[in-house]
Amino acid sequence: MSMNSQGRPSAPNENAVSYTPKTFTGNRALDMEEPLIFEFGHFDTTGVDFDMPEAFETELGGFEREDALELPGLAEPEAMRHYVRLSRNNYAIDSGLYPLGSCTMKHNPRLNEKMARLPGFGDIHPLQPLSTVPGAIELIDQLAHWLMTMTGTSAVAMSPKAGAHGELCGMMAIKAAHTAAGRDPKIVLVPESAHGTNPATAALLGYKVVNIDARDDDGTVDLDALKRTIAEHEGNVAAIMLTNPNTCGLFERDIVEIAAAIHKADAYFYCDGANFNAIVGKARPGDLGVDAMHINLHKTFSTPHGGGGPGSGPVILSDRLAPFAPLPFIRKDGENGPVLVEAEAQLTDGEKPFGRMTAFHGQMGMYVRALSYMMSHGSDGLKQASEDAVLNANYVRVGLQDLMSLPFGERPCMHEVLFDDSFLKDTGVTTLDFAKAMIDEGYHPMTMYFPLVVHGAMLIEPTESESRASLDLFVATLRDLVMSAKDGQTDRFSGAPYFSPRRRLDETKAARKPILTWEKPAPAQAAE
């Protein structure tokens, strides 16, 4: 045992028995065991004083509540502590590298947040008269201009509020275009590496989804298979829904020929824009033959991502689809500047909106953040962000390719790198085990088991936000985990995570037999 100059122990006794004590509170030092707010709140008290309202006549027509809401009342410090403690259990991009593939979990500059909270933006209301929000309309118009400039297209629908919402918008515009031309094709082609929302969106609109195979050697769309499928369903193909760069982290090298084959069949090319962060400033989707593509502002342009929102999914449209952009949209009106078109009575010749996606014009806070990001980066900065995203993904690929397995060889990737689980063969460690062990090392796991084109997929996207030092530590950590697995240290993986607030859960049982009601636990008893 080491002693300091005062003779007090400065290191643990090597002969001491190691154990994990059980605390009375359930807390483990700064690792707090936070109960539900209903478990410690008091239903008969509140931390806020409300004046009794004056007498009034209700307008609820007999639908008034007869019982109290039974919301727990907390003192202000209790409420603050509760939510701070909960936040400590969250993993976020502000905590560490977030390697989720196909999600683009990039840094959100605080400048964007400051701009979104400016008076006139932060307190804007969708029911305000249009005469009071000309600046907001001009901002939306300016953002739309830059989105069209970056994508090489002539129109953009700004109102969709997320990527999947944008997919629906683009496909509804395609359906409206076919209807206007007197056609009713029933087939939508979807490559097997597509995001799951792609076939779901097509099916929601009544289309039959036909799968397009990927090449075994590189994970890109098999052009010959595509042409054969188009010929097989001649005259009945409405569109293709394709991601580029695709979900294997690879650029579809036949993209121009794919677009030509689709257009020759009188169909439309829908591109999933989730991976736009890899090509901003490098390639314009419109130049590649894309007719419609949603852009996740909350991925590519750094606005907050995840947790169910907020999000925004503007959809860029080609000349052929521009007339069918949904209401509301912004139109230039000469010297009067941008004008918000909200009703059919405002339409001019050639404008044929398929309808309305949402009550109001999208997510204002997301618009401000995205435009702030664009203006602070400039065209050269946006291009560099894409280049750095690709550079970082390839840095991870090269750092791990001798220990982890690459399903499509050691060819360069785009913004994300795809590994499979063949390097874990005969180790007794599964893909899930490996991912859970990453949690103990302080990392959120990468995207697992997706895309489905490879077994045991592990998809890593570091984004351009990470420094070389951050990537070096991440690569070193994964190398250590791989070597532990190959050395037979299965205990490190089979019970992981060991150090998280919750251990490994039975996710299948939780999904099939969820416990949907809370029962108050027995009060803890002090030791006698």
TrEMBL record:
Keyword Oxidoreductase: yes
EC nos: 1.4.4.2
Coiled-coil annotated residue ranges, if any: none
GO biological process, one term: glycine decarboxylation via glycine cleavage system
Residue intervals of the Aminotransferase class V domain: 181-306
Catalytic activity as recorded in UniProt: N(6)-[(R)-lipoyl]-L-lysyl-[glycine-cleavage complex H protein] + glycine + H(+) = N(6)-[(R)-S(8)-aminomethyldihydrolipoyl]-L-lysyl-[glycine-cleavage complex H protein] + CO2
A GO cellular component entry from the record: cytosol
Pfam short name (any one): Aminotran_5
Stretches assigned to the Glycine dehydrogenase C-terminal domain: 385-482
Residues covered by region (Disordered): 1-20
Entry keywords, A to Z: Oxidoreductase, Pyridoxal phosphate
GO MF annotations, alphabetized: glycine binding; glycine dehydrogenase (decarboxylating) activity; pyridoxal phosphate binding
Function: The glycine cleavage system catalyzes the degradation of glycine. The P protein binds the alpha-amino group of glycine through its pyridoxal phosphate cofactor; CO(2) is released and the remaining methylamine moiety is then transferred to the lipoamide cofactor of the H protein.
Protein name, UniProt field: glycine dehydrogenase (aminomethyl-transferring)
The organism of origin for this protein: Roseibium limicola
